[in-house]
Amino acid sequence: MHIADGIISTEVVLAADVISIGALYAFGKKTDADDIPKMGMMAAALFVASLIHFPVAGTSVHLGLFGLAGILLGLRSFPVVFVALLFQSLIFQHGGILSTGLNALNMGAGAIAAYLLWRVSGIPEYVRAFTAGFFGIMVPALFMAVEFNMSGYGRGIFYLLYVYVIVAAIEGLLTLTIVKFFRRVESPILP
Amino acid sequence: MKKTLFCLSIMAFTVLAFAHGVGIKVVEQSPFIKTESSYSGEEPIAHARALVFAPDEKETEFQRGRTDAYGFFVFIPDRAGDWRFEVDDEMGHRKEIVIPVTEEFLKGDAFGDQEDETEVPTYIKIILGLSLIIGITGIFYGIKAKRMLKSKK
């Protein structure tokens, strides 16, 4: 899911970087002091979550925790995703440095989609948790496929979405489990 | 809040044993160079696009093809210099390395292995990343707390 440099066309990367920096400012400004430890720990969790990888359909995929980030942090999840990706790219060469904005846009969009789904009322909480986790992965996968397509990879790249359905289902179950745990321990962190 | 932060910390630290990234191991055995591409040195990058560029050549590749089912790709360099090898699974994972080829190697006198992931162990990188994130969080928290104290005064 982490796109390396030189894969997506320069125009798309630049546009995504600009959007990401704008979103970083918009969603990161006026952060409450109480939110900062939560954001830091979530950034640390995201930083290492993508290191859990497993093979699916000829490629290697990994966990993201973007759904959980969206649920716990709301719009503040975007700067958290950005920071985690920046360090992953600098330390592990996991995703390109110039593509950090692009990757942040993809995965940050997943976290924000999860946040919006989590806020939908009238649906049981556990269904919302699973859906948030599921779309926390599927939205970035869709963005990624569109960006590949815009860079001339052809429609075959949408095959990626089938691969990521499996990851998204695992992520949905993991998010559901974590939300259930937080609810059981009556954690105030869960909105 | 404390329980939640503890839980997130546990989530962060329980995955230290895993790693994900594209790695390339190079086995040099004159006259050929064999590359072994893998995800984190575990899963082979099978049937991925592989490009080889001769020294000082940026545009036209010397050789192109695909890795085999085990992530191997072999080529025979014909001159000394820094050769560039690139592997791309066309699903976002890509790695490029430089393979220095010497005159001795071309003459069949040199053998050796080169692993590009051995510079810093993965667990050190994880600790470094976590330390930086926690450190930055602390700095921001300190700044915010200072501002709050000032506004209260």
Summary keywords:
A: 191 residues; Arp2/3 complex 21 kDa subunit ARPC3; two-stranded antiparallel sheet; 68% helix; B: Immunoglobulin-like; 2 domains; five-stranded antiparallel beta sheet; four-stranded antiparallel beta sheet; 31% helix
Compact description:
Chain A has 191 residues and is mainly alpha-helical. In chain A, 68% of the residues lie in helices and 4% in strands.
Describe this structure in words.
The complex is a heterodimer of chains A (191) and B (153). Chain A is mainly alpha-helical and 191 residues long. Chain A has a single domain, classed as Arp2/3 complex 21 kDa subunit ARPC3 (Orthogonal Bundle), CATH 1.10.1760.20. Helix content of chain A is 68%, strand content 4%. Chain A has helices at residues 10-28, 35-49, 66-73, 77-92, 100-118, 125-150, 159-184; strands at residues 53-56, 59-62. The radius of gyration of chain A is 16 Å and the shape is globular. The mean pLDDT of chain A is 88. With 153 residues, chain B is of the alpha+beta class. Chain B folds into 2 domains: 22-118, Sandwich (Immunoglobulin-like); 120-153. In chain B, the strands form 2 sheets. In chain B, strands 1, 2, 3, 6 and 9 form a 5-stranded antiparallel beta sheet that branches. Chain B is elongated, with a radius of gyration of 22 Å. Classes of the chains: A mainly alpha (191), B alpha+beta (153). At the A-B interface, helix 2, strand 2, helix 4 and helix 7 of A face helix 1 and helix 3 of B.
